[in-house]
Amino acid sequence: MARLSRTQGLVLRIQDYAETDRIAVLLTPDRGRLDLLAKGARRLERTSGAALDLLNLVRVIFYLRRGLALLREVELLRTFPRIREELERLEEALVGLQWARSLAVKGEADPRPFKLTLQFLEGLERGWPPRLARLAYCLRLLAVAGHGPHLAGCVACGQAGELFWAPDRGGLLCGRCGGQGEPLADKVVATLRGLASLPPAALPRLQVDEETQAEVAELLSRFLEAQLARSEPGWYSNAP
Ligand SMILES: [Zn+2]
Fold first, then answer.
1. Does 235 have pLDDT greater than 90?
2. pLDDT for position 233
3. How far apart are alpha carbons 234 and 173 in whole angstroms?
4. N or C, fewer C-beta in 10 Å, the chain?
5. Cα-Cα-Cα-Cα dihedral of 35, 41, 98, 57, to 10°?
6. Which domain covers residue 34, as residue numbers?
7. Is the pTM of this model over 0.85?
8. Which of 78, 109, 129 represents a domain boundary (last residue)?
9. What distance in Å separates the CA atoms of residue 137 and residue 100, rounded to the nearest whole number?
């Protein structure tokens, strides 16, 4: 009899596998990213299989066999109905879950990514502004993964003033240290700093125009790409 393990997790991704199986990618508080094989899940759709849906918080019992984690039981702990009902909320939630999937490490016993992700989804469910909530979440997720962008002046010399975005150097960079392209507008820099440092509960009071939000989103997505590209294999798990 295989030894059973139990944990809880947020469902980051669901993928059909073989004819009747399903693979669920979970973010857990005690073992990082956990890829679970649910045998026959598509046949069990109406019973336990339905709990294994994107965005749900579930409790699972599983066992390991030949390096695979096989699902034995799943119990639904929490759903986020409002996120599902509002398109913009859902879109931002799904982008956030992709970030979690990219940054979560398999087998890592650090509860912070899980806590941040749960807090982000609970905030969206309560009505936090979706785009700002997602941007603040991504900045915090990068920080706990040890890859937070340097935002206090130039990453190389510390100078304030005119600054450029340099994802491959780790954040803000001044012109003398090699910053290229268009310098960032002051309000973009202020928004990045605010999102990285304000307590999440302050988000609903933050006033940031749509254009600035879109620019910050673009900067962060370039930043994530650069971090993933330069990380050694194995750092961000073996995503399929
Ligand atoms: Zn500099």
1. no
2. 47
3. 28
4. N
5. -90
6. 4-78
7. yes
8. 78
9. 10
Percent of the chain at pLDDT exceeding 70: 92
Residue type, 91: E
Q: Do 29 and 131 fall within a single domain? A: no
Tokens for 197? 């440092």
What mean pLDDT is predicted for residues 188-210?
Answer: 92
Whether the per-residue pLDDT at 232 is higher than 60: the answer is no
Q: Encoding tokens for residue 92?
A: 């931002």
Residue 154 CA to ligand 1 centre (angstroms):
5
Examine the domain organization and report whether 44 and 102 are in the same domain. Answer: no
- Centre of ligand 1 to C-alpha 162, Å, is 10
Residue among 126, 138, 99 at smallest CA distance from 201? 126
Q: What is the distance in A from the centroid of ligand 1 to the CA of 187?
A: 20
CA distance 102 to 114: 13
CA of 150 to the centre of ligand 1 (A): 12
**pLDDT of 47 above 60:** no
pLDDT over 90, % of the chain: 77
Instruction: Give 79 Cα–ligand 1 centroid separation in angstroms.
Output: 46
**How close is the Cα of 228 to the center of ligand 1, in Å?**
24
**Number of domains into which the chain is organized:** 2
Asked if residue 102 and residue 21 are part of one domain, the reply reads no
Last residue of a domain, one of 78, 95, 121: 78
- Report the chain's mean pLDDT, rounded to a whole number: 91
pLDDT at 43 over 80: no
Ligand 1 centroid vs 188 CA: distance in angstroms? 18
CATH number at residue 14: 2.40.50.140
